[in-house]
Amino acid sequence: MDEPQYIQFVQRKLNEKIDKLPVLEKPKSSEQPRAPKFLEKLKPITTHDGFSVVFQCKVEGYPRPQITWFRQTHIIKESIDFQMYYTEENVATLVISEVFPEDAGTFTCVAKNSAGFASSTAELTVEGPLSSHGSDRTHSISRKSLSRTSSLADILEGMPPVFAKKPKTQSVPEETDVTIDAVLAAIPEPDIKWYRNGKKVTTKENITISTTSENYIYTTTIKITKIKKKQEGRYKIVAKNSEGHATAEFTLRVRTSEKEAPEIVEPLQSTTIRKGETATLTTTIVGNPEPAIQWFKNDKPLEALSPRRNGDTYTVIIKDATTSDTGEYTVKANNSLGSAITSAFLTVQDNAEPPLFVKRFEEQNIPEKTPLILRAKVTGNPIPEVTWLLNNQPLESSERVRILYDLENIELTIKETNSELDSGIYKCVATNSMGRASHGAPVNVEVDTVKFTKKLQKSYKNFERETIELECETSHSVRTKWWYNGTEISGMDHRVVIHDGRTHKLIIKNVSKNDEGNYKCTVKNQKTETIVEVDQRKLEFVKKLQDLEITEKDNAILEVEITSDTADVVWLKDGVPITDIDDKFETEKDRGVRKLLIRSTSIHDEGEYSCQLVDEECKADVTVIELPPEIITPLQDKTVTKGEKAVFEIELSKGDALAKWYKDGKEIQFSEHIQLAIDGKTQKLKIYKSDRDDQGTYTCKVGKQSSSATLTVNIPSCEWIKPLPEETVVPINTDAEFEVELSKEDAEVTWWKKDTKIESSSRYTITKSKTYRKLVVHQVTMEDQYEYTCTVEKYSLKTSSKLKVGDRPSPPRGPLEVSGMTAQSFTIQWQPPENDGNSEILEYIIESKDMKLKRDFKKIGATKGSITDFAVSELKKDHGYKFKIYARNAVGISDPYCPDETVIAGSRINKFDDFVPSCIAPPSPPLNLTIKDLTSRSATLTWEPPENDGGSEITGYVIEKKLEFMPKWEKVYTLEAFTLEYTLENLKEKSDYIFRVYAENAIGLSAPAQTDVVQMRSLATVPSPPTPPLEIRTIGPNAIVVEWGIPESDGGAPLLGYNIAIKDTKKTMWMEIGKTPKGVQKFTIRDLQEDHEYLIRIFARNEIGLSGPLESDEPFKVLPSGDADQDDFREVTSEREPTSRSSETTTSWLRENSMDADIKSYAKGKLLRKDEYFFRIWCYATKLFK
């Protein structure tokens, strides 16, 4: 089918659909109906793949016209992809939220009422290559497979092949692989053949031809491996079905090293556009040596535009074209062997408009043998061509019929009408290069009497899914109406109305129980009636679910077909009904077909899906092939000034992707200076206080992809030696001083208050002394609380301080609490001051006084502002002590908090139980605290119980640690009373630590036993990998046992155990599934999927980290288990110890807790009151994802 034939086909089919559109509103008897008329018509649209477009028009008519939208020949159904609006002002709008290449074509808006119809048509052109959301991804399911194509199938009896994507001419190097595809739509399925230079091409040698389909959309592909020069030529695709045929042709050239003169492979094409539109002129030219290309307009060099090149294709794009762009465009190609030339005309029409009917005819009922006159008026530029149709058949001038058209006014006259020949729907169609418009109305040539000469049967009966045909005949050729239970039938659904002369038919296709009822056919005051009955078939599956393998992010469709059009099914995933029908899941009920759509699949969507129909059920497995992680937003070059923070940011497609960072090709070791922050899919590399040494190229590698950026650190010739502090706090009505020091004496500074420059005045004093610069704000008030800034514009330096007007804090508050008392020590605790004086508390100062000695209070220590407790030591037993506690902020020191209570050392104060005997005291310190084992990152402490338990049973031990130079101790762990050994892990390598251990009883904590300074200097490393062989044995349904040998070396640190990881060969991610303690080289893995292949890795671990893996040599396939291994399975599983993280047999922890590999949270219920629980999360991604 060529283009003119296809246009005629579309017009004929469209007219048939318009005739069948129902009229839902009849005019009132007192008002004259008016046929629809377009006041604003549709306009052509050119857009890019993936954009959104809006078609809009305005109509009038009475009764208010009904609006129907068509694309080519099928009705567009409203959905999330196609949104339709029809306002009270009769403005009709169609919004396509995301344009696909297959959307290109004609869109028609039809307005219809009881007086007639009108239509407006415009072309949608989609530019650019097929994107990932379009039909070139034949393995995925796009939106067209649901609402769009089902509507096409409902309405069209058949459709000839139509190409939605045609191959383009191209030039490729010899010995490369070439893949070319085309996309077309057709009903029924077409026969597709490929030809080269007129000879048929089939699959053989290095050529493979394949065709895939998705609901009436077909993709045909030719793949040529290592293409030869002899395989170039003119290729042609021919698609045929019972409705017609279509062809697509393109040229394929193969480049070699041989010399050849320029050749025009694809010439320029003449085109006509409207003013303001974009014109694209394209040609493909080959030659060796590469030809020089010149563009001309009207034989003059084209200088105003910049031609583009893509391989051997050359393009000129003219945006917002004007009439001055009209002309002949020529491309000349020259090389040493010859030349070639191609030309085409571009026509830019000013004020070009598609046809518009400004006057139209109305519905008429006239007596037989009287004249019929239909008049209309049309506008358009270029002047439209006009054709007439009667019942969708061309109507030509004859002795009876006269057609007049003076390029504006149109008139059709029939001198003497005949009911047999002249009744029907008359249409006038106007067409020009800008579009098409049509207008129509029914004409009834009435006879005095009409009777049914053949009536309907009394009843019709058939099974569901079959066809029922109702037929009657009349005495004259008239139009009849069909009714179902009192409602007029439009013929626009599965019920087709046919008027063939005196024969009248109603064909009900794919009948269901919903079609049962009373049917009648009427004409004038005559009618004939019948009853339709439908027998239901037994409910069963005609087509069951099939296993599906889908690529991640694609849409998946699960489909069944049942024997009923009305029965419902229930969808389940892993045995749980799917109730969350939203953006993720969508169901469709189309006659007997039931579909479940899974949008944008991920690994979480894997599982067993089932469909239930009464007592029947069918199942299928959905497997998602995981995509490797990708870089979404690459790194950007950064330039910072010395001392500033530099941040490199990268966005990945997956939050769990393993990324490695490098500087100048060397992997980065993270520290306090260089840190990595991960927030979902975004990773940030932060370089603090950047210096000259930090300059270089930084690279992030993710799988096979990488992104690099350069860091430049500007070293200023002048810099701050002493910048401003972040805050400056002074009392009210005092002077505030801001002082900076610079590395250059001649640097000129500027002072700012907020955004206002400060000049010397009675309020402000600015001084300069060698490298020092000072600003004094006199007698500050609350209104002076702003940010003050000092800048050096010459060197782009800036430092700021926020001024706060504050006061000394109020005193700390009571009550004074005492805990952990011994004969020589105890701990006191207090509350922060009620008012911090508008400045952060910097420290608390503690003074004490021995009440038995005649001495004044003396300072015994201080704590940071965030710490409100203090350990008082070196006391004398039975001596009473009083305390004063001060708070200090940036303004000054508060008045003291002076508790009234005198605390007596060793008085056995008990704050916890009034019924504990007075003889009970805290225990003495643990004995013989020593370092048992030491590595570069761990230390094992051992000790013995205290000499004295204080008269109460020891309840536990508390471990604390601190870096030697840090003032604050950090609690590490609380142990049971029977534990006398503990290993501290993940300590900082090459650091110096101090450890201490407290004993605890019912009264409180003992004094601590403390180690000397411990230097983390051991040279231990990770162990060597476990030794082969890695034995894998099936022991039950979907279960295996793996065994291995111990490592040859423990790396200088005790072996702690083994980690086990597994990977499905269809996925990219390794997943850790369990651990075993040292001494156990055996592990059971359950819940594997049959017919899946897995790889297994075993890691040995010590406190330093994980070894390299012992990996299975080849994938292990899980086969259906036989009866022979059931005893082994029962033996292994029945003897399994209670599950723990060190058990040698796994549990299905992922399934039991509804978790997956990228979990971010975990909940544990039924915890015991007053018990302590500790949770740990391990991550060994660096090792597992090698």
From TrEMBL:
Under the heading SMART domains, the entry gives: FN3 (SM00060), IG (SM00409), IGc2 (SM00408)
Give the record's GO biological process terms.
sarcomere organization
Q: Does the keyword Transmembrane apply?
A: no
Bias (Basic and acidic residues) occurs at 1127-1139
The record's subcellular location field reads: Cytoplasm; Nucleus
Which InterPro entries does the record associate with it?
FN3_dom, FN3_sf, Ig-like_dom, Ig-like_dom_sf, Ig-like_fold, Ig_I-set, Ig_sub, Ig_sub2
Q: Keywords assigned by UniProt?
A: Cytoplasm, Disulfide bond, Immunoglobulin domain, Nucleus, Repeat
**Residue segments, region Disordered:** 1115-1148
GO CC, sorted alphabetically, is: M band; nucleus
Q: Return the similarity comment.
A: Belongs to the protein kinase superfamily. CAMK Ser/Thr protein kinase family.
Name-wise, this protein is Uncharacterized protein
Q: Record the organism.
A: Dendroctonus ponderosae
